[in-house]
Write a structure and sequence with these properties.
Elements: H1 3-6, E1 9-13, H2 22-31, E2 36-39, H3 49-66, E3 70-73, H4 76-82, E4 86-89, H5 96-103, E5 107-112, H6 115-124, E6 128-131, H7 150-157, E7 164-167, H8 175-180, E8 185-188, H9 190-193, H10 199-212
Parallel strand pairs: 1-2, 1-8, 2-3, 3-4, 4-5, 5-6, 6-7, 7-8
The structure holds the ligand Cc1ncc(COP(=O)(O)OP(=O)(O)O)c(N)n1, the ligand Cc1nc(C(=O)O)sc1CCOP(=O)(O)O and magnesium ion.
């Protein structure tokens, strides 16, 4: 599967986001159509040290079973140590160029909030952009103000063709707005971590939007 296709339904999650076993949640999400996974163990009640590492390895194993890329949030050294498929970093994390050098040809995702950040990420070697927040979210407390899907639209209008996922407050009722703005897919936490059994509805929303755009 190429990267654009892998980004259709991108599940981002850590144990702090789950109401039951993260391994079971991920397994159900992958059966429901998730195409890429990011391990984001961060914030209140998150695991550290050995328990975090053990969980990361278990989740990586589940992704391997489904042949879905396993991405690590923020921690480049952890990603290299585990042999993860890539890393996602934001504007407040390490420099993009330095991370690209460490990662070689592994997947590098960058958060971008405007056309300038998107252009810089592209020039520094990003493989895809995470753009948000699309809608109001309570999952990440240091989020930027909501700009909505129009940011993705403006990136596309300015000729940025890099694969893009929208993130922040996305659920099956608003997924079409993100896709219609020119996104390749959506990244979600709570819509799946709280209701993994509804993953297929989100996946169908992405597919329907892609079919309509032809
Ligand atoms: C796919 C995707 N997009 C954006 C983010 C946010 O990254 P960042 O801005 O570095 O914030 P944290 O997730 O590290 O709190 C993401 N993780 N994934
Ligand atoms: C991790 C993250 N990054 C965001 C950004 O705007 O960059 S919003 C966000 C949280 C997404 O969680 P939910 O799907 O539950 O709203
Ligand atoms: Mg980050």
């Amino acid at each position: 599967m190429n990267l654009r296709d892998s980004l259709k339904l991108y599940f981002v999650m850590g144990s702090q986001n789950c109401e039951r076993s993260p391994v079971d949640v991920l397994e159900e999400a992958l059966s429901g159509g998730v195409t890429m996974f990011q391990f984001r163990e961060k914030g209140n009640r998150c695991l550290e040290g050995k328990p975090m590492m053990e969980l990361a390895l278990e989740l990586q194993h589940v992704c391997q079973k489904y042949r879905v890329p396993f991405i690590i949030n923020d921690d480049v050294e952890l990603a290299l140590k585990m042999g993860a498929d890539g890393v996602h970093i934001g504007q407040e994390d390490e420099s993009i160029g330095a991370v690209r050098k460490k990662l070689g040809d592994k997947i590098l995702g960058i958060s971008a909030h405007n056309v300038r950040e998107a252009q810089l990420a592209l020039e520094s070697g990003a493989d895809y952009l995470g753009v948000g927040p699309m809608f109001q979210t309570t999952t990440k407390n240091d989020c930027r103000p909501v700009q909505g899907p129009k940011v993705i639209e403006s990136m596309r209008k300015m000729g940025i063709r890099l694969p893009v996922v929208g993130i922040g407050g996305i659920h099956s009722g608003n997924v079409h707005k993100v896709m219609e703005a020119g996104s390749d897919g959506v990244a979600v936490i709570s819509a799946i971590s709280k209701h993994p059994e509804r993953t297929h509805t989100l996946f169908q929303g992405v597919q329907d939007s892609l079919l309509k755009s032809f």
